[in-house]
Amino acid sequence: MAKFPPQPPHGRGATGSPDNRYAAHQREWVDDGWGSLTALPTLRTELQVDTSRTVITYNDSPDVPFDRSINPYRGCEHGCVYCFARPTHAWLGLSPGLDFESRLFHKPDAPALLRQELAKSGYRCAPIALGINTDAYQPVERELRLTRALIEVLGEHAQPFSVISKSALIERDIDLLAVLAKHRLVHVAISLATLQRSLARRLEPRAAAPQRRLETIRRLHAAGIPVTVLIAPLIPALTDHELEDIMTAAREAGALDCGYVLLRLPLEVDELFQDWLRTHAPLQAERVMNRLRDCRGGRNYDSRFGRRMRGEGEYAELLRRRFRLAYRKLGFMDIPPLDCTQFRVPGRALQLGLF
Q1: Cα-flanking dihedrals φ and ψ of residue 212, to 5°?
Q2: Residue 243 maps to a domain
Q3: Angle (deg, nearest 10), helices 146-156 and 174-182
Q4: 276 vs 285: CA distance, rounded Å
Q5: Is the CB of residue 15 less than 8 Å from the CB of residue 276?
Q6: What is the C-alpha R_g of the chain?
């Protein structure tokens, strides 16, 4: 018996849909002798409304440079098998596997809710991170345009923000982002895990190809928008040999700053990623997990603050040294901080917004 089907579905990242940890029952695939263990049928993306009453989420994590974020979507059609946000679908009674990338939720009231929250008497301006758990520019954004509407609200009130994406769709909003960049109100980060097209197609099947993301960096840079490249995740024994090559390509494309995050396998992501390894990289699977455990104190994952992003131990230290050396050699630099002094409270400012 097994939790995953013998053949993964075409065009998706996860190899199956294991039950979430809150389910009363757990299911497994069993061969009944009648040829029932066939590949899953082609999945169609389903879209439902998220009726959240707030849109800004606050955190007190010392591992991230922001204390608030906005995610206009739950679930992500990019289908990155390593996505740390997959376990959140269990809160909805769904599987962190294929459900996460095919059963999506959007927040149609997000722009209106944002304006209300910015207008609250107790609100204090600080940079907002847009699209942290799930990509704000995933394919459904092309039609829904929720992210663009949120950027319009943020710009109207000079609320500084950063956005991270692995989609070329962000180029659609260069007209808005370029204006905000002139006023130090926006930073953009482009996520890049590998330069290998074939590997990227299996790791993140519906995201932009690596070379297309480099072109996005070029276009953002040409428009005067400060860009960081985030090498995430850095996967030991699978992509870590590309570290310097990714940094070099990103710098040549115009990225000003750079960072990296070691592969994280919280909760259900652990078994999803290990089954992906057995399916798509069987000869490397054991080595990948052994090197990852070297960075996680012998475990598959370490959730402690200060350890979960970069790991610890000799192998993790080697990665840190390689990164620091390449960072200095390539001339990366800290991007100037966003400016919070221009913020205008909704309903109180008489002057026109930036747009």
Answers
A1: -70, -35
A2: yes
A3: 20
A4: 9
A5: yes
A6: 21
CA atoms within 13 A on the CB side of 286: 1
Domain count, the chain: 1
The predicted pLDDT at position 1 comes to 40
Strands 56-58 and 46-49: unpaired
Q: Does residue 19 register a pLDDT over 90?
A: no
Q: For residue 149, what are its two tokens?
A: 């509407």
For residue 14, being part of any structural domain is answered with no
CA-based nearest residue to 110, from 188, 66, 51: 51
Average pLDDT over all residues of the chain: 93
Domain membership of residue 218 as a residue range: 47-330
The pTM assigned to this predicted structure is 0.92
Tell me which H or E stretch contains 68.
strand 68-70
* pLDDT at position 38 over 70: no
Residue 36 lies inside a defined structural domain of this protein: no
Give the chain's length. 355
147, 140 in Cβ contact below 8 A? no
Residue 147 pLDDT > 90: yes
Q: Distance between CA 114 and CA 124 in Å, rounded?
A: 14
CB-neighbour burial class of residue 97 (10 A; exposed 0-12, middle 13-18, buried 19+): buried
pLDDT above 90 for 100:
yes
Q: 102: domain CATH number?
A: 3.80.30.30
Is pLDDT above 50 for 352? no
- Predicted pLDDT at 238: 98
pLDDT in tens, 256-285: 999 999 999 999 999 999 999 999 999 999
137 exposed, middle or buried (CB, 10 Å; 0-12, 13-18, 19+)? buried
CA distance 200 to 80: 9
Query: Could you please report the per-residue DSSP string of 214-239?
Result: HHHHHHHHHTT--EEEEEEEE-TTTT
Residue 19 lies in a domain: no
Which residues in the chain belong to E strands, given as ranges?
46-49, 56-58, 68-70, 73-74, 103-106, 128-130, 161-165, 186-191, 227-234, 257-262
Determine the 3-state secondary structure of 133 from DSSP: coil
What would the pLDDT profile of 194-210 be if each residue is shown by its tens digit?
999 999 999 999 999 99
Closest CA to 169 of 121, 207, 226, 131: 207
Would you state the structure tokens that stand for residue 32, as one six-digit string? 């009944």
